[in-house]
Amino acid sequence: MTLYIDYDACLKEPTCPAATYCSTKALYFHPEESRLFFNPDLCNGCGQCIQKCALNALSLFETTEELGIFLEKITRARENFTSKLESIIGLK
Ligand code: SF4
Q1: What is the Å distance from ligand 1's center to 87 Cα?
Q2: Do residue 41 and residue 19 come from a single domain?
Q3: Rounded CA separation 43/73 (Å)
Q4: Which of 43, 51, 53, 91 is surrounded by the fewest CB atoms within 10 Å?
Q5: Which pTM does this prediction carry?
Q6: CA of 88 to the centre of ligand 1 (A)
Q7: Are residues 6 and 48 in the same domain?
Q8: Could you report the per-residue pLDDT of 17-60, keeping only the tens digit for each?
Q9: Cα-Cα-Cα-Cα dihedral sign, residues 11, 28, 18, 7
Q10: 4: containing domain
């Protein structure tokens, strides 16, 4: 399994419920880095972290190929949003 952490959406709190409910400690808060980390070797794919994150900052994938497709879609969506926004406010 592999986990995408949207650090723009994540509050980066030590009390993160997603990390707290991860029974294998695959998802954990690193105090010195002040953010979540993910260890794919420990993840069992239970999905608890996804359900506990109220901000939808986490996405779980079975393969890195699926994650790659997801990241391409996010990048395209952000580019489209930026382009439309620039058009609306007259920068284009
Ligand atoms: S899917 Fe389960 S084991 Fe994997 S990071 Fe999330 S809570 Fe932890």
Answers
A1: 41
A2: yes
A3: 24
A4: 91
A5: 0.85
A6: 41
A7: yes
A8: 999 999 999 999 999 999 999 999 999 999 999 999 999 999 99
A9: positive
A10: 1-61
